């Protein structure tokens, strides 16, 4: 078991090994450290911590941010904080805050609500120095008031009196003046009676008249508790009466429509109705009394039906004839459109490879040039040429050469993006226009194509033909025009040819 003498010896040895300055404070630190390691508790080692625990919690919280290890450090900290505090100033501030709080409560005491009761009560309760739990109680009373307070009625009266004030004290006299006046509900009475009067039915006149008489005699009845319920009952009754009456009217319209339908069928079957007869019928219809709205509908339907007779027949004959002519023309147009599409495709397509030809490539190049000039969208051009293609034709024949051209075209299309423009420029030369790509990106793409073609087994009549390809790459930013980019790519192609073929030149 470790003793105080052993802890002291270890502490002295620590000073000797590390060359510490031998002071009482330094010795205490090392001694307490060694004692802690030996699980020995000395009261002097915990003196600072014990003293901090006896301080006010305010100071304990402040000391948590400092590393206080010695009694002298603790004393120095407390002296500094005590020097900063001004008790007289704090007391003056508390007195001013207390006076201010009393004035606020006196103002609230004038409010006609529960706030007045709480304010009056708290004015008496306020003392120069309240305890924290007393202040908490006062605060909770106000919190309870705020969570339960309902100013719905106040807002209702504010809206009713057309007031926009925000200051309650200024608004109260105006509200009192407004509510003291006798209200005029005459316009509201007229509006209610108007809404209760049926539009079509006339079976509620007595009930509406009685209600109107009562409200005219005393318009304040409109605010009675049972008035809203009575108005709802009468409104439902009015709606039902109007619906029933409309149903009867529509039954009459249905009968008229059915009659007119039969007449239309009859007129369509009869081809002998003359214009003169239609004129006579129209004159008879003009004599009909149209005082009733539904009779007006009847008149219009009859007139329209009569006028339909000859026009329908005439239109049907003409339409049938025109349909035949239109059908013939449509067939001719379809044939012409097919021929036009075929011609357009042939004009833009290379017959052997079914790729874009030189003319179509030039048109696409012009579009890219327009994008470059308008939107600064860069593009690159890759010029390809099959190496030693003449030897293929001379050795295996032109049919073999055609197979090689088609195969190379398929590879170029397969490995290109949807936005790339691929075509045969002529002979064994191909061009790929690469939008929104600089020459470095185009070079990587061209070299990938070169590697694919070098590794591909081109076969003709069971004979393998070794094929390689050379390419030249240029981007639009390098030159001043569309013509120059094609020329530059072509020059780099021939540089690749002259440098040994089966390569891509970009500089």
Mean pLDDT across the residues is 77
Q: Which architecture of the largest domain does the CATH hierarchy give at level 2? A: 2-Layer Sandwich
Report the structural category.
alpha+beta
The ordered H/E elements are HHHHHHHHHHHHHHHHEHHEEHEEEHE
Task: Please count the beta strands (DSSP E, at least 2 residues each).
Answer: 7
Stretches with pLDDT under 50, minimum 5 residues: none
Roughly what fraction of the amino acids lie in strands? 5-15%
Strand order of the largest sheet: 2-3-1-6-7
Structurally, the number of domains stands at 4
Overall 3D form: flat
Give me the CATH fold name of the largest domain: Alpha-Beta Plaits
Compute the gyration radius: what is it? 53 Å
CATH superfamily of the largest domain: Reverse transcriptase/Diguanylate cyclase domain
Separation, N- and C-terminal Cα atoms: 87 Å
Question: What is the helix content?
Answer: 55-70%
The DSSP helix count reads: 20
CATH class of the largest domain: Alpha Beta
Descriptive notes:
- Strands 2-3-1-6-7 form a five-stranded mixed sheet, sandwiched between helices. Strands 4-5 form a two-stranded antiparallel sheet.
- The mean pLDDT is 77.
- Helices cover 67% and strands 7% of the residues.
- It is of the alpha+beta class.
- The protein contains 20 helices and seven strands.
- The protein starts with a helix and ends with a strand.
- α1 (4-18) crosses α2 (24-37) and α13 packs across α15 (293-348).
- It folds into four domains: 87-148, no CATH class; 186-246, no CATH class; 270-348; 349-505, 2-Layer Sandwich (Alpha-Beta Plaits), CATH 3.30.70.
- α20 links the parallel β6 and β7 (504-505).
- It has helices at 4-18, 24-37, 47-53, 57-63, 71-84, 87-108, 114-125, 132-148, 152-160, 168-180, 186-196, 205-217, 227-269, 275-286, 293-348, 358-375, 389-396, 398-414, 439-455, 482-498; strands at residues 379-386, 421-426, 429-435, 458-460, 463-465, 469-475, 504-505.
């Amino acid at each position: 078991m470790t003793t105080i003498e052993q802890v002291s010896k270890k502490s002295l040895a620590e000073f000797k090994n590390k060359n510490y300055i031998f002071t009482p404070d330094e010795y205490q630190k090392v001694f307490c450290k060694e004692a802690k390691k030996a699980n020995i508790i000395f009261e002097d080692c915990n003196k600072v911590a014990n003293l901090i625990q006896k301080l006010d919690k305010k100071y304990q919280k402040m000391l948590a941010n400092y590393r206080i290890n010695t009694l002298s450090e603790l004393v120095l900290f407390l002296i500094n904080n005590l020097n900063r505090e001004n008790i007289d100033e704090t007391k003056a501030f508390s007195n001013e805050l207390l006076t201010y709080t009393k004035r606020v409560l006196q103002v609230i005491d004038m409010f006609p609500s529960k706030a007045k009761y709480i304010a009056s009560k708290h004015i008496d309760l306020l003392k120069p120095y309240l305890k924290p739990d007393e202040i908490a109680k006062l605060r909770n009373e106000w919190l309870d008031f705020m969570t339960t307070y309902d100013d719905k009625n106040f807002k209702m009266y504010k809206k009713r009196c057309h007031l926009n004030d925000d200051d309650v004290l200024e608004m109260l006299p105006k509200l009192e003046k407004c509510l003291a006046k006798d209200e005029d509900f005459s316009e509201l009475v007229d509006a209610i009676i108007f809404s209760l009067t049926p539009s079509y039915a006339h079976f509620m006149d007595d009930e509406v008249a009685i209600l109107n008489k009562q409200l005219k005699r005393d318009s304040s009845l409109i605010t009675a508790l049972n008035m809203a319920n009575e108005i709802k009952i009468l409104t439902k009754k009015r709606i039902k009466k109007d619906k029933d009456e409309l149903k009867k009217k529509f039954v009459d319209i249905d009968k008229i429509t059915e009659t007119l339908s039969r007449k239309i069928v009859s007129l369509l079957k009869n081809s002998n109705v003359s214009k003169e007869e239609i004129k006579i019928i129209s004159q008879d219809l003009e004599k009909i009394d149209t005082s009733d709205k539904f009779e007006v509908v009847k008149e219009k339907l009859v007139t329209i039906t009569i006028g339909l007779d000859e026009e329908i027949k005439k239109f049907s004959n003409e339409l049938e004839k025109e349909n035949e002519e239109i059908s013939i023309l449509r067939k001719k147009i379809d044939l012409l459109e097919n021929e036009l599409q075929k011609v357009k495709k042939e004009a833009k397509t290379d017959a052997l490879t079914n790729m874009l030809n030189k003319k179509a490539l030039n048109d696409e190049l012009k579009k890219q040039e327009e994008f470059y000039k308008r939107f600064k969208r860069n593009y690159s051009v890759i010029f390809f040429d099959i190496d030693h293609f003449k030897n293929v034709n001379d050795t295996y024949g032109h049919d073999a050469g055609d197979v090689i051209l088609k195969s190379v075209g398929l590879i170029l299309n397969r490995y290109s993006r949807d936005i790339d423009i691929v075509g045969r420029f002529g002979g064994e030369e191909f061009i790929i226009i690469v939008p929104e790509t600089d020459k470095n990106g185009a070079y990587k793409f061209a070299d990938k194509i070169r590697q694919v073609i070098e590794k591909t087994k081109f076969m003709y009549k069971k004979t393998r033909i070794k094929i390689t390809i050379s390419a030249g790459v240029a981007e639009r930013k390098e030159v001043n025009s569309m013509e120059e980019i094609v020329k530059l790519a072509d020059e780099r192609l021939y540089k690749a040819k002259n440098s040994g073929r089966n390569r891509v030149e970009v500089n």
